[in-house]
Amino acid sequence: MRRKLRVAAYAVCVRDGRLLLARSPARGGGHEWVLPGGGTEFGEDPYDTVRREVTEETGYRVAVTDLLGVDTNRAVLPGSFPARTVDHHGIRLLYAARVTGGELRHEVGGSTDLAAWHDLDTVHGLTRVSLIDTALRLWRERPPTGRLDALSETG
User: Fold this and answer.
1) SS3 sequence, 91-123?
2) In b/e form, how buried is each residue of 29-58, taking b as 16+ CB within 10 angstroms?
3) In whole angstroms, what is the distance from residue 37 CA to residue 8 CA?
4) Which helix (H) or strand (E) holds 151?
5) 2-11, 69-78, 94-103 — which one is most confidently predicted on average?
6) Which has fewest Cβ within 10 Å: 38, 101, 125, 155?
7) Cα–Cα distance, 104 to 102 (Å, whole number)
8) How far apart are CA 5 and CA 84, in angstroms?
9) Taking phi first (over 0 means left), then psi (-120 to 50 degrees means alpha), and beta for anything else, what does residue 110 get?
C-alpha cells in the first residue's frame, strides 16, 4: 500500500450573509459544492495557496483575516493499479478571508466549473462536501485551538 500526504488550504468567505463556494465534479458523477481552495504546491506556503486558489476558482482576490483551524482526514483509496491502494492523509487548513478585488467568474479548465454566493441559511440544502460544514462551524465557534473536537474536551 502506498502512502500519500496532501496539504491543502481553503477559504471561508462570508459577505452579507452569503458564503462563496465553487462547484466541482463529484466522485461517481454529478456535482458538489466545495470551498474555494486546494492543494499546496511544493514549497508553497498554505497562506499563499489559499489566496491563489480563490483567485483561480472565483476570480476574486482575497485578504486572509484569520486562521480558523485545521481539519484532517484519512482514507484508503483505490490506486491507479487495482492491486495498489493508497493510504491518503489530508491536512486541510481553513482560513477566513474577505474579498478585496476582482470580479466573480467561473474557472475554465480547472478543478471547478462554477463559482457562486449562497445564503448561509440555504447551504445545508446543497449537495456539498462535508468540509463546508466543518468550516462553517469553525467560522461560527472560533475554537481557540482551531479544532472542533477540543470544544467537547474542555466543555
Assistant:
1) EEEEEEEEEEEECCCCCCCCCCCEEEEEEHHHH
2) eeeebbbbbbebeeeeebeebbbbbbbbbb
3) 7
4) helix 149-154
5) 94-103
6) 155
7) 7
8) 16
9) beta
For residue 77, how many C-alpha atoms fall within 13 Å in the half-sphere facing its CB?
13
Maximum Cα–Cα distance across the chain: 49
More confident residue, 47 or 73: 47
Q: How far is CA 61 from CA 36, 42, 69, 110, 152, in A?
A: 12, 22, 21, 17, 35
- Across the chain, what does the average pLDDT equal? 92
Tell if the pTM clears 0.85, that is, is over it.
yes
- Residues 123-141 have pLDDT tens digits of 999 999 999 999 999 999 9
The three cell numbers of residue 41 are 504546491
